[in-house]
Design brief:
alpha+beta, Butyryl-Coa Dehydrogenase, subunit A, domain 1, Butyryl-CoA Dehydrogenase, subunit A, domain 2, Butyryl-CoA Dehydrogenase, subunit A, domain 3, 3 domains, 4-stranded mixed sheet, 4-stranded antiparallel sheet, 11 helices
């Protein structure tokens, strides 16, 4: 059993760290205040091949070797360490590429993957509705096939990346049929950005993750060609759940990055802050909190890395991905809370990075499956 990264993986991680610390970390607080997506950083990522990390070269990506997914979360972890909001938008982009690789037809792969991998367009995924979150089968957005076109009507909510000027549009989950017993057939349909009848609502004003473009999407007699059906008809939920496996591994990496960032900022502060004639890190209560934070980071990291290794190995990984997500997201919350306490009153001041992490971290318990849903998935694997 080898827990050591290869030389190439160490290089990937170090390069991602250097990029993120230069392009993301120094501006994370400012960008959160402005709530603007940094297109200029995305352009730099394109030039370095980061936007196509999991896509093979035949489709214009930069993936190579047998550890594509582990390599990708090494990058994602370092990006989240610098700016978790940016990393999460990037994660959605990766998830869409993975869905094309898993379920797209040859024609769809050739049409969409080169543009996604190059970063010319960003991926977006639309499942959630006002009354359909954890209960995905409750979606009501409908797509009816009429004269060779899908006619779409409905509303999606809390959708990331679809409103960006370089967005692909959206990968949409819709009801395409319903049997006599009311059981819904749910399919995936690709809706390009400028399709008539596809309207983007206003960007939500959120507690955190403000640079992320998150908004409502409205479809009113929105028409796309029949060929825009993604993969097999009626397999939308299976496709969504398949994509969710990588999403949860990615959240494991993001949670790890946030937990590491909380430790980074808190350790620096504790070494500089002097009380009673010595740095507060010399007080055992603070030192032990920092020790717990460091231990937590390694716990989250091992869960995320193992789940990615299983996916790279072609082995079952749904449960391990779910464990990685719930462990890392909850550890991130714990580390940020401890870090906030170490900062004391300073943590309540927006100029400190720990305050940004504090505003952002709670959503990690909710996105890509709430902690409760994750525990339900894991418990069912135990026969409960």
């Amino acid at each position: 059993m080898n827990f050591e990264l290869t030389k190439e993986q160490k290089r990937i991680k170090q390069s991602a760290y250097e990029f993120a610390q230069k392009e993301l970390a120094p501006y994370a607080l400012e960008r959160e205040d402005k709530g603007e997506w940094p297109y200029e950083v995305w352009e730099k990522m394109r030039s370095l091949g980061y936007t196509g990390l999991i896509t093979p070269e035949e489709y214009g990506g930069s993936a190579f070797g047998n550890s594509v997914y582990l390599d990708s979360i090494l990058v994602l972890e370092e990006f989240a360490r610098a700016d978790d909001a940016f990393a999460t938008s990037f994660q959605v982009h990766n998830l869409i590429q993975d869905m094309f690789l898993l379920y797209g037809s040859d024609e769809q792969k050739k049409e969409w993957l080169p543009k996604l991998a190059s970063g010319e367009i960003m991926g977006a995924f639309a499942l959630t509705e006002p009354d359909a979150g954890s209960d995905a089968r409750a979606i009501t957005t409908r797509a009816e096939l009429i004269n060779g076109e899908w006619v779409i009507n409905g509303t999606k909510i809390f959708i990331t990346n679809a409103g960006l000027k370089n967005s692909m549009g959206v990968m949409l989950m819709a009801v395409t049929a319903e049997d006599a017993n009311g059981r819904k057939e749910i399919s995936s349909i690709i809706v390009p950005r400028e399709t008539p009848g596809f309207t983007k609502g206003n960007k939500f004003k959120k507690v955190g993750w403000n640079i992320m473009d998150t908004r409502e999407l409205i479809f009113r007699d929105c028409r796309v060609p029949e060929k825009n059906l993604f993969g097999a008809r009626g397999k939308g939920l299976n496709q969504a759940l398949g994509g969710l496996n990588l999403g949860r591994i990615d959240f494991g990496a993001i949670g790890t990055g946030v937990a590491q960032a909380a430790l980074d900022h808190s350790l620096k502060y504790a070494k500089q802050r002097v009380q009673f004639g010595k740095p507060i890190c010399k007080n055992q209560v603070i030192a032990f909190m920092l020790a717990d934070m460091a231990t937590n980071v390694e716990t989250a990291r091992m869960h995320a890395y193992r789940a990615a290794w299983l996916k790279d190995s072609g082995k079952p990984h749904e449960i391990e991905a779910t464990m990685a997500k719930v462990v890392a997201s909850e550890i991130a919350n714990k580390n940020v809370m401890m870090g906030f306490q170490i900062h004391g009153g300073s943590g309540f001041v927006k100029e400190y990075e720990i305050s940004r992490l504090y505003r952002n971290v709670k959503i990690l318990d909710i996105g890509e499956g709430t902690s409760e849903i994750c525990r339900l998935v894991i418990s069912r694997s135990l026969g409960c």
